[in-house]
Design a protein that fits this description.
By secondary structure, this protein is mainly β. β1 and β2 form a beta hairpin.
Length: 275
């Protein structure tokens, strides 16, 4: 009992304190004809470390790294460095690696959405280079299974200001069953168990689009809810940033829940022991 309660509390705190999108991934040029160019990006809170694998004026591979920080406008901007060191086939000589590395340029990572961005960088006197980048998809992720979790967010914009669905501090606990057909489609069944929403079952079904470490369900994803206070009608929504975690699954659900109301809910869940 206490273990279940602890899990629920941890998940609820996680959902309430959802941060900005985490952009860690491998990024490539959105134009598939430009294969071989790209960047590795690792994010830590509001800081990003980015390693470019690009080409020099002799058309040979060359590496640079950047250290970017959220500038408060949704962009990440910072210095670009070029590091040098000892030839990999011989013992490392610290004298070959000046510390700190000299700054050689500046870069900006401007997210367009959870999956795409504009990357602009200037290196030396080459002039600014602007690339439309997207997350590189490697292999499919398995998400199918049974989970237990919580969601938090808001329900707003209802036509009737007294609509009982209006809730700026929506909180709920649920059991979640996920069915998946590769990278083609998925079904998420939320069976709510908290006192306020007990007996409500909501089923989201839709196509999957795979972007690197993330999936998106939509457009065309449908949501049907049955149980106490539900009308059973089918509505349309989007689930963004859907992905497996080390212990379970998480994502963000946005869409119409009737009466002009729009839900914006983060959810997270852990795999149940019997999976």
């Amino acid at each position: 009992m206490w273990k279940r309660l602890l899990v629920a509390l941890v998940l609820l705190v996680s959902a309430v304190n959802a941060r900005a999108v985490e952009y860690t991934d491998v990024y490539v040029d959105a134009d598939p004809a430009q294969s071989g160019w790209g960047a590795f990006l690792v994010q830590s809170d509001t800081f990003q470390f980015i390693a470019f694998f690009i080409y020099g004026p002799d058309n040979q591979p060359i590496w640079y790294t950047g250290q970017l920080t959220d500038d408060g406008t949704g962009k990440y901007t910072g210095a670009v460095y070029r590091s040098i060191g000892t030839y990999f086939a011989v013992p490392w000589n610290p004298a070959d690696h000046p510390v700190p590395s000299p700054q050689i340029g500046i870069a900006t990572f401007q997210p367009i959405d959870s999956y795409n961005a504009t990357l602009t960088y200037t290196i030396g006197d080459s002039g600014a280079v602007t690339k439309s980048v997207t997350r590189q998809t490697l292999t499919s992720y398995k998400m199918a299974g049974n989970y237990s979790g919580s969601m938090a967010g808001s329900v707003s914009g209802c036509t009737d200001p007294n609509d009982p669905r209006t809730d700026p501090m929506f909180r709920a606990r649920y059991g979640l069953t996920v069915g998946q057909s590769g990278d083609a489609s998925a079904t998420l069944v939320f069976t709510f168990v908290d006192t306020t929403h007990a007996g409500i079952v909501c089923t989201a079904t839709g196509p999957l689009t795979h972007f690197g470490r993330l999936y998106q369900m939509g457009p065309g994803t449908t949501l049907t809810c049955t149980g106490p206070g539900q009308d059973g009608k089918t509505r349309v929504l989007t689930i963004d940033s859907l992905h497996p975690t080390g212990q379970g699954i998480e994502g963000k659900l946005t869409g119409d829940v009737g009466g002009g109301c729009t839900a914006s809910l983060h959810f997270a869940a852990v795999l149940t022991v019997n999976n």
